[in-house]
Amino acid sequence: MFQSQTRLFKGIECPSIKQKKKCELPHCIFSHPRAAAATAVKRVKETPAKAAPPPKRKVVFSPVMLDHPPAQHQLRLRYLSVIRDKLEEVKCNDPEAKAMELEKQTAERSTAGTYANNIRTLVREILRGEHNEGAEEAREKQAAKSTRLKYREELAKLIIPESKLSKRYIIEIPSGEVEEDNKPVKCDRCGAMFYPTEEAPVECHFHLLRRNYNLEKKKLEDVFPCCGQVLGESNGCELRNTHVFKLSAPSELHKAIPFRTVPDTPASSKWLFGVAIDCEMAYTSKGMELIRVTALDWDSGDVVLDRTVFPSGRVLDLNTRFSGVSDLNEGTTLNSVHYPTLDFESALTALFEYVGPHTIIIGHGLENDLQTLRLVHNLVVDTAMLYPRHATRTHSLKQLAWTYLSRNIQSGEHDSYEDAGAAMDIVKADIRSRLKL
């Protein structure tokens, strides 16, 4: 059937669609329902997949090729398998790779006549654990431990006997009567006598530095190093408006602040075998008091304590030129951590975290430090009494540091860390030299 040119029947539904639900005429003049438009599907652009990386080539378990092998390949392979098996027995992480490495090293240093024997030696070493993972690190730790123990043993041998210590140190808690409080005392700077309770301004003339001792002439120099003035030229190059004093009699020290021994209970896991200590002091209305305490671990050399301390008396002179402390309110900073200034009792509590009854204390002229700490402790290694050996007079810490360490210390303000470290290093240098460590 041909389509109507006038399209008059296009508005009439096809009878075949009504009856048969379909129309088979190719050019039917009647109306037909429009077929649903096909949904356009957006084609996704195909991206070629990245080629997978080639699998890692597995290392063939075989002896490493050498220019001049000490044995035939088959013999080396048999020994290599034995090495691997022994490494597996000692739980090596990668026994095949380790075996190839060890066999290669052995083969490189062997001849045809020594190869088999060297392999047997290697196997014994493996079974002893010498080629385990971390064995080298373990050996280094063991060597360090052995060296540390040697240093400890030698340090213990240097403890000053009490018979000698008693000549300079307070080795027992003091007892006895104390004279009246308000008695005249001698100024520690200018030598004038005065009453500590007096607060009226005075003129205190003195030299900041004492005269040096001339070893050749065996007497004190005539010139003061602080100003270059000759003895007798003036009363001093410095002027202050207060006199100062320090207590020296054990009973007086004990009355001002009681002495004590290191508490032995409860035991602290932080107690150290040896501690190098240095204290800084200031003049106060109660004499010379502690204003800073520093402690270093003998084994590691690390600073374990560095705190400034408020004295109980009114501060007259912080002695900054020698103490290095200019403001007690600043506190200290250790390992980027700021620590506020402590009172005396809190400072001792902090110190006793590291110093136990059996801790050896190292320092220079420690009788002054222990008196300032009001501490009776007889396990002492004092560089002022020990070095140089067979000396007829006491050498300064500055002199000893230069002699034993080639280190110039105390070139400016004193630093308790520097002084404690120098005393400790002098002892270690002596031990190292004698034992050739």
Automatic annotation (TrEMBL):
Residues 273-436 form the Exonuclease domain. GO terms for molecular function: exonuclease activity; nucleic acid binding. InterPro entries: REX1-like_exo (IPR034922), REXO1/3/4-like (IPR047021), Ribonucl_H (IPR013520), RNaseH-like_sf (IPR012337), RNaseH_sf (IPR036397). Keywords: Exonuclease, Hydrolase, Nuclease, Nucleus. Gene3D superfamilies: Ribonuclease H-like superfamily/Ribonuclease H. It is found in: Nucleus. GO terms for cellular component: nucleus. PANTHER family: FI18136P1-RELATED, RNA EXONUCLEASE REXO1 / RECO3 FAMILY MEMBER-RELATED. Belongs to the REXO1/REXO3 family. This is RNA exonuclease 3. The lineage of its organism: Eukaryota, Fungi, Dikarya, Ascomycota, Saccharomycotina.
